[in-house]
Amino acid sequence: MIGLRPLIEWPLVAALVGLFGTAGLVLLASEEGIYDLEQAVPPLLPWWRLAALIILVTAPCMMLDVSAKMAGVTWQEALPLFREVLTDTHAGHVWQWYIPAALAIVIFAFATMRQPLRVAALLGLSALIIFLQAELSHATDKGLFAVVVYFLHAAAAGLWFGALLAFWIIVRHGAPPREWVGRTALKVSTLAGWTVLTLILTGIYTAYHGLGFDLYHLLYSAYGRTLLAKIAVFSLVLPIGAYNRYRLIPDISAPTTQTSLVRNVGLESLILAVGVLGLAAILANTPPAHGHMMPSGAQMPM
Questions:
Q1: What secondary structure does DSSP assign to 25-56, as a single string?
Q2: Confidence of residue 194 (pLDDT cuts 50, 70, 90)
Q3: Rounded alpha-carbon distances, angstroms, from residue 223 to 134, 203, 283
Q4: Are 85 and 92 within 8 A, CB to CB?
Q5: 299: in domain
Q6: Alpha helices in the chain (DSSP H)
Q7: What total of structural domains would you count in the chain?
Q8: pLDDT for 198 beyond 60
């Protein structure tokens, strides 16, 4: 059983990193005179508002689950413990920042304002909550450097997933000029390359702390098997991205090529959202295997 918390955390993580990545992409790809922020943001607003509501609704559920786990009680029994958890625990101190930031995201997603202000606010607030998520993770037991690495890992995933998602939504629903599509496709591909490199490097560091580079832990612990599943799904996306970069983007001026590219980007986004982020939510709630004793009678693989 994976428990209830990953099922709550998966839409939260998808909404959070997606909001961060889509805001980052429109900021990076907006071009005055071609397709600026005032034009690029409207197609994304329904997604941003949905993401803001998901973050606001799931955050208290996460906090309630944390309180229940700390006390070893049910959610209903944990309700009276909220104040004590908020004031007397590390998680509570983090949530004191988390909830106001989630409320602020809703305000900036729904209020009427200039789009550059909206984008900057959503980008900054989502980055803050991603860092707070890192403070609530297993990484906090390893110190600030591990928390920063966790943050970089999540931020890189957000930029990759969000850039793909923003490109797909804008091209399908925003009718951008073909020149913008070609330039932005190349920017998204380049950004994906750097984020994948960041994910690999930070993932190695995280795997070391979770597994200790122990083959037994990798193959036979719940943490190791979940990590292997995440890597397998992650690997499915790489050939699609490579095909887009080296086969489709050079020929982006052809209408049929653009259609193929948008279809592939949608597929990449779906695999990342459902597969990689779903498994990441499970992994984040699976105790690291490093330092755990082998079961009685188990043999170390040769």
A1: HHHHH-BTTTB-HHHHSGGGHHHHHHHHHHHH
A2: very high
A3: 18, 13, 6
A4: yes
A5: no
A6: 5-29, 37-40, 45-71, 75-78, 82-88, 90-110, 115-135, 144-173, 178-211, 215-220, 222-243, 255-270, 277-284
A7: 1
A8: yes
pLDDT for residue 49 is more than 90: yes
Selection from 166, 187, 179 nearest residue 253 by Cα: 179
Q: What is the CATH classification number for the domain harbouring 28? A: 1.20.1630
Range of the domain at 142: 5-284
Structural domain includes residue 296: no
Who wins on pLDDT, 108 or 199? 108
- Say what the pLDDT of residue 3 is: 59
Q: Has residue 293 been placed in a domain? A: no
Closest CA to 203 of 159, 240, 154: 154
Query: The pTM is what?
Result: 0.84
Give the residue carrying structure tokens 């004793």.
Answer: 293
With cut-offs at 50, 70 and 90, classify the pLDDT of residue 50: very high
Domain membership of residue 224 (yes or no) is: yes
% of the chain beyond a pLDDT of 70: 93
Q: Is the CA virtual torsion 284, 59, 55, 58 positive or negative?
A: positive
